[in-house]
Every structure is written in C-alpha cells, then in structure tokens.
Amino acid sequence: MPNSPETNCDALLTVEALTVSVRTREGTANIVRDVSFTVAPGDFVGIVGESGSGKTMTLMNLLRLTHDPNLTVSGHVWFGGEDLLTLSEKRLQEIRGGQIAVIFQDAMTALTPVYTVGWHIAEQLRAHQNTSQKAAHSRAIELLKEVGIPAPEVRVNAYPHELSGGMRQRAVIAMALACEPSILLADEPTTALDVTTQAQILDLMQQLQSRHGSAVIFVTHDVGVVAQAANKVMVMYSGRIVEQGPTQDVLATPQHPYTWGLLGSIPKRGATRRTVRLVSIPGVPPSPLTTHDGCAFADRCAFVHERCVEQPPLVALAKHPDHSDACWLPRSDRESLRARVLVSAQPADPNDTAKRDQGPA
Ligand SMILES: Nc1ncnc2c1ncn2[C@@H]1O[C@H](COP(=O)(O)OP(=O)(O)OP(=O)(O)O)[C@@H](O)[C@H]1O
Ligand SMILES: [Mg+2]
C-alpha cells in the first residue's frame, strides 16, 4: 500500500516506486524502475550514474515534463499533500516554476531568443505572483545581481545571445529562483561550461540554496561535483537506484560494486600517473529494452555469483539506516572486495570502514 503523504510529513518530496516505460518498435523499454526516495527541506541531492541510467527521465517525470504519448509513468510523487502524478495539467503548471523550478543543461533551451533576459524573469513573476510590470522589472534586476551578473541594470535588457554561456546559465538560475521555489531540479546545469565557470555556478547554487532554504535535486556525471555539493547521493544503474545515502557515507564506504567502479574511475587529488592505476568498469550498460529478472549489473560485475539471477532489494546498513544498496554480496566481504577495485580511491578513514563493514545489515 502506498504511503500517504501524512506519513512523510518531514519530507518536502516523497517519491514512491516511480516507474517509467516507453513503447518502442522493438518492444517496451523500462527506463526508470521502482525508484523511491525522499527529499527534506535544505537537502542537496546528487543523482549520479553512467549515460542512459535514467537520471534525466527520473527528474523530468517528477513534474511530468515528458509529453511522449508512448510513455507510461506509475508510482507516486507526493508534494505538499498532493500526488504530482495525478494532478491536472493546470494545477501542475502552477507548481512548475512557482514551487518547483527546473534548470536544464543547455541554458538556451530555457530562453526564447527574441525576448530579453529581464522579460524572461518578469514573465515568471507575472505568471505565478501577479506582480506589476514595474515591480517585476525591479525584481529582475535584483535577481540578476544576486546571481552575480555584473551591471544588472544594463544586462536586464540584453538578449540571450548577447551573454556568455556562464552568464546565460546564471540568468536561467535567476529565472528559476524568481518565485523562491521550495525545490530546484537541475539536470547537469554545469556540464556545458568550462571548469572555472562550472565551479562558480555550483558555488552559486549552494549559496542560493542556503539563503533561500530550498532543496536541490541535481543530476550529474561527475562524482567530484557530488562530493563538493551534495549532502545525499543516489547512484543509478539501468533505471534503478543501486546505492543511496548521505554523501560522506557513500563516498567513504561505498557498498555496491557499481559505485566502486564509478569511484575507481576518477583520479584521486594529488595522484600522479606513476602512483595511480585508474580502473574503468568493463562493458557497457544494458539496453532499457532488456528485461532483468536479476541484478542488471551482473554482466559487468567482477563478483557475480549464483544469487545475482534474483533482483537484489535495496537494504540498509545495520548501523546506518540512511545508507542502503542493492547487492547480494555478504556485508562482511565488502571491505576486502572493495579494496580490490578501489586501488586509487581508498576510503577516507580505513578504521572507520572496517568497523562499519562488520556484520550483515
Ligand atoms: N522517449 C524515449 N523513447 C525511447 N527511449 C527513451 C526515451 N527517452 C529516454 N529513453 C531511453 O531511456 C534511457 C534513460 O535515458 P535518460 O535520458 O534518463 O538517461 P541519463 O541517465 O539522463 O543519461 P545521460 O547521462 O546521457 O543524460 C536511455 O537509454 C534513453 O535512450
Ligand atoms: Mg540525462
């Protein structure tokens, strides 16, 4: 039986068994499979995983932003006592941009070339808050200043093509924040930018999040970004969450062989080519057309065994109930197996790791 929103009153957003499938010529593709998680006020949740793991489709379907008639979405997305998956399009439009805002990877997709930056922000305010034209213009200047755009009184009249990529992404963030949403959904908002601008935008999002007290759900390929910004992380593989928990726990004592692979493939700070052997995950992720009775990672996993023909459930660690993973390997074996994979990315505190790995959850 699905939880009622009342049982999750501390959560801002409660996602239960979100499942997305699409009918294609080749058959049904299962894109998001039984994804459940909660977001509390002030959370910065990072969703990581390889290309095609279902990160974008999870994010987009929280707000029913996909309009493909071949798509079937099931589950529940509880927000403020309402299930977003069952709301009318009219009510959803009030929530989109007003209470839940979205930032995409390419800022240009959010901006119409023939309108000024100020118009875009003012439009958000007028749509959701019935603000006068003059007040909206002044607020647009304030917001552009807040996101670090120089000479905001001048830039407010600029067209999108007159701004650099980084400036455009800042303008989109200003638009998203215009109505002070309680949740910000961001799909790789820094991927198209250079490294310095990426760091600045990430920093800005963290500052704004703490100032406005909103929650952020952030999709990225980059585990470094998660380490820097997120307090919670969800690792996705083939449409499922395979590991989730507080970022520091997941990064210090990762439990799932797929997470070990992801962490093993990033260079450690200060490492040189002589001292480090980076590990990549062999093989490629399965097509969403594949139906799995068992673990979807089994084909690529160095530790596959008989039990993996069954789908492993997400199970929490005994002493860390917020940290869970979906793998049949005995908990007591994890530390030594992880050490074999994580040649270059050792856990932060090996003593702590040893303590935590004792005993099955
Ligand atoms: N409308 C659609 N029809 C068929 N397949 C789709 C459709 N939309 C998405 N998919 C497939 O669903 C899977 C998950 O897509 P999604 O965009 O969520 O991946 P992602 O994790 O965001 O990847 P990336 O990191 O490359 O952005 C992919 O295999 C994609 O090809
Ligand atoms: Mg994506």
TrEMBL record:
Alphabetical UniProt keywords: ATP-binding, Cell membrane, Membrane, Nucleotide-binding, Transport
Annotated GO MF terms: ATP binding; ATP hydrolysis activity
Gene3D superfamilies (UniProt xref): P-loop containing nucleotide triphosphate hydrolases (3.40.50.300)
GO biological process terms on file: peptide transport
SMART domains: AAA
Pfam families referenced in this protein's UniProt entry, alphabetically: ABC_tran, oligo_HPY
Entry-linked PANTHER family: DIPEPTIDE TRANSPORT ATP-BINDING PROTEIN DPPD (PTHR43297:SF2), OLIGOPEPTIDE TRANSPORT ATP-BINDING PROTEIN APPD (PTHR43297)
Name used for this protein in its record: ABC transporter ATP-binding protein
Organism, as annotated: Leekyejoonella antrihumi
Taxonomic classification: Bacteria, Bacillati, Actinomycetota, Actinomycetes, Micrococcales
